[in-house]
Amino acid sequence: MKILLVGASGTIGKHVSEALKGHEILSIGRSSGDHRADIESRESLRALFRKLAPFDAVANASGHVAFAPLPELDAEKWKHSLGNKLMGQIQLAQEAIPYLSERGSITLVSGVLSDEFIPSGVAATTVNRALEGFVEASAIEMQRGIRINIISPTLLKDSEKAYEGFFPGFVAVEGWKVGQAYKKAILGAMTGQILRVL
Ligand SMILES: NC(=O)c1ccc[n+]([C@@H]2O[C@H](COP(=O)([O-])OP(=O)(O)OC[C@H]3O[C@@H](n4cnc5c(N)ncnc54)[C@H](OP(=O)(O)O)[C@@H]3O)[C@@H](O)[C@H]2O)c1
Fold first, then answer.
1. How confident is the model at residue 127 (pLDDT cuts 50, 70, 90)?
2. Cα dihedral 27/182/198/78 (nearest 10)
3. pTM score
């Protein structure tokens, strides 16, 4: 299967690549990978998809949101959070559709903060829930058997240090399990699903 993986060089991306060994994985990043694209730029995504078409799956393991207390979530932080992780993935999905092969798939990523709330996590919760809504609703409008799903992992063990203090009492998950959830979404038959990895 020919799989485009955005964010392949990142913490989650490496586990996804490992889980999908044996398939043709084309890694994509802003400054890393076989091919370059920025999820914030519709044009860069469209140009890349056109160049690499046709492909059987596109999966995303990138996206950033601001972590800040509510009073500090100013217009700029909202713009960044909505423009990057939310609109970045929505435009990735929409731009990929015409270039996906029949019964191809789209796999996005949200996170545990759509179900659990932490101080400084308002932007993450807002964005993750919006993404899950996008996936559930858009699944019924997909044509040519195209499927769309979203992976919602809790904090990864690999990322515990990076998020130290933000997730007290959360039990981090091993990254390989997140890789397997992507594998299930890409190789399976499900659509419109939120795959929680806790
Ligand atoms: N890590 C966790 O514990 C965890 C838990 C739940 C959910 N998540 C979610 O999973 C996603 C990935 O997290 P991560 O921790 O694996 O991130 P990461 O380690 O920071 O890796 C990010 C990856 O995305 C690429 N990237 C960054 N910005 C991009 C852009 N604008 N366009 C295209 N590619 C871009 C990076 O490569 P370049 O620098 O070359 O662009 C890199 O390969 C995020 O949405 C995050 O919220 C993470």
1. very high
2. 50
3. 0.99
